[in-house]
Write a structure and sequence with these properties.
With 132 residues, this protein is an alpha/beta fold. Helix content is 33%, strand content 20%. The protein has one domain: Rossmann fold (3-Layer(aba) Sandwich).
């Protein structure tokens, strides 16, 4: 079994290729570990963009949201600046959000709420079948 290459990309960089790409926005340690577990089972080359806790380049964030395959937002971990742009990011069909807060009705903007990252495996399996 040959594992794929994972390219980690952070602001201000961008990478333009045909790989499946993920953008993790303000991921908690728990979410990072889950994501790492899913990636360890991959056979494809992928790009992983990370907008982490110390990042504040909103221009970069919004532009990368437009070029990646999937956006994963840890809403509970977002700072006040990033939260200003949540509704715009969540309105994109490729955005998925993780939150424990049921008081804010994010579901009015997006139905793509996730509780874990198990869905990534099914997407990866679908892509591997298409390649065969």
């Amino acid at each position: 079994m040959n594992l794929g290459n994972i390219t980690l990309i952070t602001p201000p960089d961008r990478l333009y290729n045909s790989n499946i790409s993920y953008l993790l926005i303000k991921p908690s340690t728990k979410l990072k570990l889950q994501f790492q577990q899913k990636l360890s089972k991959m056979n494809e080359d992928i790009n992983v963009y990370v907008f982490d806790s110390d990042e504040h380049d909103i221009d970069w964030l919004l532009s990368v949201c437009q070029i990646v395959t999937f956006v994963i937002i840890d809403v509970d971990n977002c700072d006040s600046l990033t939260k200003l742009f949540l509704s715009l990011i969540l309105s994109q069909p490729n955005s998925f959000y993780y939150t424990n807060d049921d008081s804010i009705p994010f579901n009015l903007i997006s139905r793509n709420r996730i509780y874990d990252l198990d869905w990534i495996e099914s997407i990866l399996n679908d892509n591997e079948e298409e390649d065969e």
